[in-house]
Amino acid sequence: MDLRRVMKSVRAIFSALLCSVTLGLLTSHAALAQGDAEVGKTIFEENCKACHGIDKASVGPALRGVKERHSSVDWIVKWVNDPAGLVASGDAEAKKTADLTPGAMTGFPTLSKGDVESVLAYLEVAPKAEVKKAGDTTVEVTGEPVKQDNTLLTVVLIIVLVILVLMVAVLIVLAAAMSKQMSEKEGLSEEDQELVNQKFSLLKVVTHPAFIGGVALIAVWLGLHIGIHDGLYAIGVQTGYQPVQDEIHFSHKIHAGDHEIDCNYCHTGVRKTKNANIPSLNICMNCHTQVKTDSPEIQKIYAHLDYDPKTGKYGDNPTPIIWTRVHNLPDLAYFNHSQHVKVAGLECEECHGPIKEMGEEGVYQYSELTMGWCIDCHRSKNVNSKGNGYYDELAKRHDDFKGEFTVEEMGGTECSKCHY
Amino acid sequence: MANNTKYWKGFEELENSPAFQEEASKEFPEYLPMADQRSETEKAEDSTRRDFLKLMGFGVAAATLAACEAPVRKIVPYIKKPESVDPSAPNYYASTYAVGGDYCSVLVKTREGRPIHVEGNKESSITKGGVNAQISASVLGLYDKARFTSFKKGEAEIAQGDADKAIIAQLQELSSAGEKIVIVSNTILSPSTKAVIEEFKAKYSTVEHVTYDAVSASGLLKANGGVVPGYNFEKAEVIVGFNADFLGTWVSPIEYSKQYSKGRKVTTQSREMSKHFQFETTMTITGGSADVRKSIRPSEEGKFVLELYKAVVEGAAAKTPEVSEAAKALKAAKGKALVVSGSNEEAVQVLVKAINEKLGANGNTIDTNAPAYYRQGDDAKMAAFVEQLKAGQVGGVIFYNANPVYDYPKGAEIAEGISKAKLSVAFNTTPDETASLVQYNTPDNHYLESWGDAEPKKGFYSLQQPTISPLFKTRQAQDSLLVWAGADQDYYEFLQAYWEKNMYAQSGDVMFASFWDKCLHDGVFSGKGGTTQAAAMAAPVMAADSAETEVEEETEGEEIFVEEEVVVVEGAMGVAEAITVVGAAKAPAGAFEVQVYPSVAFGAGEQSNNPWLQEMPDPISKVTWDNYLAIAAADAQVILGLEKEEAGLQAARDYDSKVVSVTVNGKTVQLPVVVQPGQAQGTVSVAMGYGRKQAGRLAEGLFDKNVMGEQLIGVDVMPFISVKDGVVSYSTAGEVTKDGSKEYKLARTQTSYTASERQSVVQETTLPEYKKDAKAGQFLLKLHTSEGTVEATEVDLWKFSTEETHKHKNHHWGLAVDLNSCTGCSACVISCHAENNVPVVGRREVINRRDMHWMRIDRYYSSDYSKKGKGADGKPNTDYYEKLEIASDNPKVVFQPLMCQHCNHATCETVCPVAATSHSTEGLNQMAYNRCIGTRYCANNCAYKVRRFNWFDYALNGDKENREFSGVNVPANDDLGRMVLNPDVTVRARGVMEKCSMCVQRIQLGKLEAKKEGRPVKDGDIVTACASVCPTDAITFGDMNDKDSAISQLLGKENSDRSYHALEELNTQPNVSYLRKVRNTETEA
Q1: Is B102 helix (H, G, I), strand (E, B) or coil?
Q2: Which of A95, B5, B409, B864 lies at 20 to 30 Å from B181 by C-alpha?
Q3: Which residues of A touch B70 (CB under 8 A)?
Q4: Are B657 and B889 within 8 A, CB to CB?
C-alpha cells in the first residue's frame, strides 16, 4: 500500500472525528440551555424574524445576547407578551428598551414562557450570519451562473481550436519536410514525381465546388439555427427584464438584504396561495410610520394612503400604487407559489435569483420562466416528501418505491398539472 | 381579321345593371355561412379575397412583431388588504336563496370578493347540499347589466334621500286620508322581513300586504290550514303523484329530490326501493322517474283522485288499472305511503289530504310538526286587489320584488290600474314589465348582496348574508321600508335584534354573539321549540290571526276585503263537499285542454335574462331558447295530417317543427310543435316564463326572432292562465289548428328519441329481476373472431393490457353515475357551465349542433318496437329496425348524464396529431388548449361525442368583441358578466377543442391543500362541480385507489354488480362508470 493512500485515509478519519466532536459539543451546549433550540428556530422564524435579525439590527434590534442584556428571562417573557403594557406600567427597563427603536414592538400574547426560552436557546446556538451563508440551505447566487457555464464552454472550445490549429501546423511542416526530402531523392516513379511537383494552391481549394458547397451548407445551417431556432425560442422569453417602476423605487436590497426581513412578511400569500401577493400599503405602514419618514419614496406611500405623518391621521381618499409586473407567466400556465414554497420548501432565490441584491433600480427576471425551464426542474428534483402524510400515503401505493420520487414520477410533467 | 364577336354570359351581363356589376366583382357569389347572420350593412362590408390576403399578410407581420416584445403588464395590490381575503384563494360563505318561496340553503364561492359559484349547503337539514338549475344559475343574475343602477323617478335618476322624502310625504298623505296602501309580494319566507312589514304597517295604518305566487298553490294551502304539509318522501315506500312535478318544479323540488332519491337507492345488500306512480298530463322529469306513469287530462285529475279516494278510504274497486294498482300498493304500505297533487283546486286537495290521513301518512310521511311555508299566496286576496286597483280604490302600491304585470294572469289589468294609484313604487331589481310602469323605482339588492333570513319550515331557520358589497346604488328593500317607517335601526341591526329575541331564545347558547357567528357560519339553525311569532306570521292564511284581523277592521272602507278573507279562512271544505264538487266537475268544452306549466329552467320566468338557463336543454324535450307546444303523436296525426309513425319519426329526427295556432280565451298565439311521447291525448302543454317583453337585453342580443316574428325569446302564454272564482287555473280548453305550411326551427341538443335498443349505452332492469340477480340487465357483447367467440372487452387495438399501459399509481380519479337516482334536473349542467367558463352559443349555433356543454343529460324513451319483433311470417321483422326510433305513446324514460368518459384507452388520444390530448397518471384525459391545432380528429373519433370545438371566439378576445356572440354569451363578453368567470379555468379561444376535465382545477386545489397540511387527501375533499350540486346524489366522484372512498365502496362491494361502462364493447375502459337503472315494475320496460 502506498504512503499517500494511507495518509488520505488518516486525514479522512481525523476530520470525521473532529466533526463529530464539534457537533457533539454544539448539541450538548444546546441541551444545556433551557428550551429546545429547534422549536425556538421555528418560533423565531414565524414570529420574530420579520422585524429582528440575529446579528444585524433591522426594524427591531439584533437579538443575539438579548438574554444577557436584560434582567431576567421572566422580564423578557413579560415584554414579549405585552410590551406596550409593560411600558405603561412604568417599568424603567421597558422604557429603556422601547426607546431603542422608533417603532413600537407588537405583542405576542400567545407565546408562553417555554416558547420564549426556546427562542433564547436558539439565539445562543444560531449560526453567525457569515456561517449561515455557507450553509447548505441557502442557495448561493452570485452574478449569473448561466454565463459562467458559457465561458467554460468557450474556454474548452478555444483549447480544442488551438490544438487543432497546432495539429494542422505540424502536419503542414511534416508534409513540407517530406516533400522536400522526396524531391531531393532521385529515380522516383512518375506518379510520385507528380505528387512531389504538385503545387498547393489555396485558390484551387477555395474555388472547389465541394468546398463552396460545404461552406454554404454550414452558413445556411448556422443562419437557420441562430436566426430561426434560437430566435424563435427567444420570443417571449424575458430573462433579464427589469422594468423601471413608475412610482416607488423599492429596494429589495435594503429590506430583504440589509435588514433581512423575511420575504413572507410582505409577500403574505407565498405560503398560502397561488399568488405571492404584492404587499398592500398597510404592511409598509407597519414600519414606515416610524422608519425613514422623511424619505421622498416613503412620502409617496403617504400620498397614496392620504396619510398625514404629522397628525398620524388617514384621509378618506387613498389610491392604490400601480406597479409594473416583472414576472409575466402566460395566462395559459398555472403556477402556484404555495406548492413550491410551502410544500416543496424551495427558497425564493432558486427562481428569483439574487433578489437580496436588487436595489432601487428594480427587480429583474432572473429565470427563463419557460416550459422547458419548469420541466427540467421537475424531471431532476425529488419531491420534498419527508414527514408529509400526503406523500406517505402515495408511497404506499407505489410498489417500486425507492424512498424518493422525482416530481415527474408524481405526474409533475403532465399537461393538466399546469394547463387547464 | 380580328374577331369582334362578343358573347354575353346572359341577359344580366348584356344589361350590365349595377346589381350585376356588384355580383360580378365578387370572388364567391354566395355568402359565407356566417354572413347571413349579420345585418344588411355588415353584409355590404363583406371582405374580398384581396382584403383577406392583405389582412393575413399584415396579421402575420404584426404577430411576429408583437411576439418580439411582451406587453407591459401592471399589477395593483390592495391599499389595505382585508384579513380574510387572499387573492387567488376562494372563500365560501353560507347563505340562503329565498326568492318567491323557492328555498335553498346555499354555499357561495367567492374569489377576490366576487361570488362566482353557488353550491348547496350540506349543513341544511332541508336541502342537504342539493341545488337546482335555477339556483345554480342565479349567480349570473348578480352581474346582469339589465339591473337598475340607481333609484329612479320615472326615467330620471334620483338620489336615495330625495326619493325617501318624496315617498314618505306621499305615504303620510295617503295614510292620513285613509287611502289604502298595498304591498304586493310573492311568498316571503323571511320572518324578519315580515316583522319589518309589520313595522311599516304600524307607521302607516292603511297598509295592506297581498301575497300571490306566480305558480299558485292556493288550493293546497286552503286544504291544509294555510301551510304546505311537511312531506317526507324519504319515508314513503309508495308515492302517488297527480300532476305534481315534485322533482322538477313543484313547491320545494330540491328538498323533495333529496328525500325521494334516498328511497330509490339500491345496493347489492339492500335490494329494496320505493314505488312511484305518477298521473300527469305532459311528460315531466317526475313522470320520467316514475315506475308507473299514466297520462291524464288536467280535467281528469279530480276524477282519478276521487277514484283513488274511494278505493283507499271506502274500499271500492277502482276501474282504472293504474289507480287500482296504486290503491293496492298504498294500502299495503300503510304508514309508509304518500299521495301528492299539484292541483290548485281545494276540493282535490281535500281528498288528497283525506287519503293521506287514511294511509297514516301524518306523523310518518308527513311531518306534522314541521309544516312548510314555501307558498303563501292567496289567490282570492290577489284577485280582490286587482279589482280594487282597477277601480282606483288603491291609493298607493308597493311592488316588493314581484312582477305581476307579467306573471299574474290578470297582468294586463294591473298594468292598466297602476297609473290610477297616486303612489307606485317597485323594489324590483330590473326594469321589468311591472317596474317600468311605476313612478318610483327603489331597487332592492341582489340576494347575494343582501342580509336576510328565512323560515322555510316551522322551526327551521336559515340566515342570508351578503357575499359582495352592492354593485350599484341600490338598497335592500327591508332598509327602504324601515327608512320609510321612520325606524332608527337599519335592517342588519333589525335582523340581529330579531334573531336575538326569537331564535337565540330557542338555542340555549350562552352568548348571542357566538350564537350569531355560528348561525352565520352554518347558514342554518334548527330551533328546538318550534314555532314562535315568526311561524305564526309566516302563515297569514292559516287560522284567523286575531292581530291581523284587528288591524284590518280598524281600517275603514275595507269590508269587502275582510269578508273575503274570512270566507277563505273558514271555507275549509269538508270531505263530503269535496266529493260532490269533484264529482260534479265537467271537462271543459273544447277540442283540446291547454296546460301551462312552469319549466324546470325558468319556473315563472324570473330569470329569463339568464343565458345559462336559456341554453340549458329542457330535461325532457332537449329544446333550448324557446318554448313549444307539446302534443301527443295521435293528435299530431290529426292536426298536422301525418301518419302516426311519420309523426313519431319526424319528431325524432327533425329540427323543423310545424307551427300551429293555439287559441285560448279568445287569445291566439303561434307555437312550434314538439311531438311529446307521454303527452295525454287531447291535451297540449306549453311552458310559461317565455316571451317576456322587458326581461333584459338577452332577447335583443339574439339574431333570431321568435316563431311569431317578435324579437323575443319564446312566446308569452301567460294570458292562457285564467282566474276563475278567485282561483288561478293553469289549464283551460282551447283550439289548436295547423298554421299553413309554416315551419320553425327549434334548437334541440338531442334529436334522437330512443336509444334504439343499444343496451351498451343505457342498461336497465326491473326490481324483481334485480332481486333475483344483482347482475340482471347486464349486457355484454360477444364478438366472433378467428379464435372463436370472445367477450368484446377482450379484443383490444392496444398492444398492451391495462396493467402495462396505464398504471395509476398515485390517484385514480373516477366518477360513478347512478342512473337509478338521476332525475334529469340539469343542475349539474349549469354548475358545470359556471365552474368551467363554458360559453353560451345562442339559438342559431345550437341548431348548427355547435352547443358547447361539457356535460349533457341524454334522455331516452322506450319504444314499442323491438329488433326481436316478428313479422306476420314469423321471421324477424326488419322494418322494426327503422321504427326503433319511434317512442312509445307512454314511454319509460331514462336520463343519462354524459360527460367526457376519461377513457384509459382513449380513442381521441390516439388520433391527435400534436398530442394535445393525453392521459395522465391519475386517470384523467387531459386537454392542452394551447397545443391544440383544431384538426377535430379527436371529436370525430370520440365514441361518446363529448368533445366540443370552439368554432368562433365566443368570448371577448382582447378588447375585440365578437358581435355574433356578445349578445348571448354575456358571461364572457361584458365587463360585468366577466366577473362571474372562474379565474382558475382558461377562457378558450377560437379553433381549439374542449371537453370535461373532471374539474381538474378542483382536483389540483384539493391535493395542494392536503399537501400543505401534510395529510392524505380525504374522501369528499375534492368534488367535481356536477357532483357538488346534485340534489339526488346521483354523481359520485373520488379516488378509486383509496379503498375506503365512497366511489370505491359504490363500485366495489355496494354495487359492483350494477355498474357498467357505456359502450363497453369498444374497450375504451372509461373512468366514468354507470349504475344500471332499476325500475320497480313487474314487467320489462
Answers
A1: strand
A2: B409
A3: 236, 238, 241, 328
A4: no
